[in-house]
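Worked problem 6 (solution included).
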Amino acid sequence: MVKTRGNKDQRLKPEDQSPNLLLVIGHRSLGCVTLASQSRLPMAKSTLQINLEYMIACSLLATFTVLPLRLALATGSILGRFGYYFSGRLRRTGLRNLELAFPELDAGRRKDLLRGCFQNLGRLLGVFSHFGKPSPKALPALIECEGLEHLSAAEESGRGVILFTGHVGAWELSSFGLSLLGHPLSFLVRRIDNPKIEALVERSRTRRGNRTIDKRSAAREMLQLLQGGGTLGILVDLNTLDREGIFVDFFGVPAATTFVLAKLALRTGALVLPVFAPWDKKRGRFLLKIQEPLSYNATGDETEDVRRLTQLFTGVVEKYVRLYPDQWLWIHRRWKTRPPGEPGIYR
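Solution. The predicted structure is:
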């Protein structure tokens, strides 16, 4: 059980959890396994359940792996759209989020965006299935990188580099794509509660030189990495418990947001660059977009500096969500944790 301010204790649901390769369409919608939904609390599983989930995950990935990459993306997109109609609770969460973010849109338009969200998840499955190929020649051809020179210059500075992103487009490509281009990095993850699936996902993610850091025991390792001039990747757009974050505005609504990125930047002086990997429908490619380092300074008031920087980083994520509104993770309960005294947003 987890207690959050302004809400009664309740068990974490899949839409409250932190997704890696979020295959909710498999678990919720099509009766298969959640490939990487990671619960914040360890959940004991039987050996039978672990093996069954692993077998389904392997079968699902293997099916997509044998397909040509573009066919895998198209098939995943169709699977995701199909999953939309079999995910009542997730669909209700997504529509509630879209009401908060886009009150000016009519119900039909919001449903269109939510269907796009499910299609995006299916497309993510398609691309992730090809991470594990010994020589993924088709994958680099499907990635168009913009701003790689910003990352190269930042790495050469020796100051340490933090790359942050959100759950927009193929967020797994924001790290794997860079490793394909010769820029491997370390990035935070929350381990999956199925050790066999965790190992499966880990092998795919790290095949090209990337390294994962367990979020539960990462503080010292992150500091050492950045102080040594390394590169760290962080996702910053999920709901946090009140003790793990601060409230900043996301689409004009206070959202509990991790303060880890801001504190790391302030304490190490690392360069902070946004990186996103949306799908460009017109070009038929993923755009791996790396921005210039964001400008920030420390005033000496750490509390205010952390709040200001966290709002800055969250504003960048919001900008990309507005640019690609059908590619964000609307089925996540982003505004679940509320400030003290505020009623809950979700039923």
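Discussion: The chain has one domain: 14-323.
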